[in-house]
Amino acid sequence: MALIISDDCINCDVCEPECPNGAISQGEDIYVINPSLCTECVGHHDKPQCMEVCPVDCIDKDPDVVEDKDSLYKKYLKLTS
């Protein structure tokens, strides 16, 4: 699955620089995650770094974008080639 940021986001700016794929950007009201770029840090880190640094725990798996670890790794390879 890709990740999604909920409306609980406080726009603290800590998640964006942690994303190794550049999947996080400022949206109209809160930060957003581009699911085509999100690999949940597979290939880069053991855990999603945005979730690790979020002070309000507003980042979770996106139920509308279901991907397994193998799919995420293939996406990582495509993004880094």
UniProtKB/TrEMBL annotation:
Record has Ribonucleoprotein as a keyword: no
GO CC terms: cytoplasm
Keywords noted in UniProt: 4Fe-4S, Electron transport, Iron, Iron-sulfur, Metal-binding, Transport
Domain 4Fe-4S ferredoxin-type: 1-29, 31-64
Pfam family, one: Fer4
Cofactor(s) the protein needs: [4Fe-4S] cluster
GO MF annotation list: 4 iron, 4 sulfur cluster binding; metal ion binding
Cited PANTHER family: PHOTOSYSTEM I IRON-SULFUR CENTER, PHOTOSYSTEM I IRON-SULFUR CENTER-RELATED
NCBIfam families in alphabetical order: di_4Fe-4S_YfhL
Protein name: Ferredoxin
Organism of origin: Methylomonas denitrificans
Lineage start: Bacteria, Pseudomonadati, Pseudomonadota, Gammaproteobacteria, Methylococcales
